[in-house]
Amino acid sequence: LMNLLDGAYKSMEAAGGWSAEMDAPSAEVVNYITLQSFVLAVVFATCQGAHEYGHYSMIQLNKLKVSTPTLIPSILTGITTTINRIEKPFENRAQLAKFSLAGPLVGMIVSIVIYVFGLQATPLNIGEGINNLPLLPLGIMQRSNLAVGVANLVMGQGFVELYSSTNESFIPLSPVAIAGFFGMVVNALAMAPYGRSDGGRTSTALFGRSGAQGISFFTSIMILFLGLISNDAILFYFLFVTFFQGEQEIPCRDEVAEPDNTTAFLAGISWFLMLLILLPS
Question: Which pTM value belongs to this model?
Answer without folding.
Answer: 0.85
